[in-house]
Amino acid sequence: MECDPNLSRRIESHMLAGPAGRIEALLEEPDQAEPAFCALVCHPHPQHGGTMHNKVVYRLARGLRSAGAVVLRFNYRGVNLSEGSYAGGVGELEDAASALQWLRQRYSGLPFWLAGFSFGSRIVLQLGQREPLPERILALGFPSRYPDGVSYIDGAVPRVFIQGESDQFGPPESFQPFFDSLSGPKELIYIPGGDHFFTGVLDELEQAVQAIARRD
Fold first, then answer.
1. Which listed residue, of 50, 77, 95, 162, carries a Cα 20 to 30 Å from 88's Cα?
2. Which CATH number is 15's domain given?
3. DSSP readout, 103-135?
4. pTM score
C-alpha cells in the first residue's frame, strides 16, 4: 500500500445526498497511483467547532492518503454547507453511513477502512459494527472521560486506538480500563507528550497512521 507521501493530491468537492439534506464532502486521491483502499474519515463534535478541516482530521486523512488510500472527509449535518441540524450523535451516525455508501459505490472494488477523531471515533466504532464490515477501524483521541451510553465492547473488526499520553478527554486512567474491556482484535498506541488535539506531535501522529496502513 505504499505511496510517496510527498505526492500532490487530487481533490474533488462533492455535495452528497444525506438523510437530512446535502452533505458537504471532500474526496482526495493519491496523484500518481491508483488507490489501494478507501477510507472514510469522521471529524470531532460539531457543537464544539468540529469540521472536516480540523487539523487532526487533516493529518489523519493525509497519513492514509500517503499510504495509498482514497479518502473521503465530510461535514455532519448543520456544519458549514451541510444541511440539517445537530441530532445528538444519532443523525451524525446516519450521515456517516450515507457518506460511506457513496464512497463504496464509487470504489466498489476496493476494501475500506473507517477512521475518526474524538466524537468521530465514536461514530466510526458504531458504524464499524454494521454490515458490510470494514477491514480496520482507526479511533483517535477517544473521549473516554465522557461516557455516551453506547456499548463498544464487542467487535469483530480490528480496532486501532491512538491516544495522546496527556489527552485531557481520554486520559490513561479512564481510557485504559475502557480499552481493556473491549473484546476482539484491538491495538493501542500512545503518542508521548500528546494532548487531546495532539498539539506539538501532529507529525508523530501522522507517521503512526502511515505505519499502520503500510504494514497491511
1. 162
2. 3.40.50.1820
3. HHHHTTTS-EEEEEETHHHHHHHHHTTSSSPPS
4. 0.94
Q: Counting Cβ atoms within 10 Å, is residue 139 exposed (0-12), middle (13-18) or buried (19+)?
A: buried
Q: How many domains does the chain have?
A: 1
CB neighbours of residue 4 within 10 Å: 11
Grid look-up 454494521 returns: 130
Count Cβ atoms below 10 Å from residue 119 Cβ, excluding itself: 23
Q: What cell was used for 112? A: 475500506
CB of 18 closer than 8 Å to CB of 100: no
Cα gap 92→201, rounded to integer Å: 28
Q: What is the pLDDT of residues 168-190, one digit of tens each?
A: 999 999 999 999 999 999 999 99
Q: Answer whether residue 1 is part of any domain.
A: no
CA of residue 84 relative to chain centroid, distance? 21
Domain that holds residue 177: 9-214
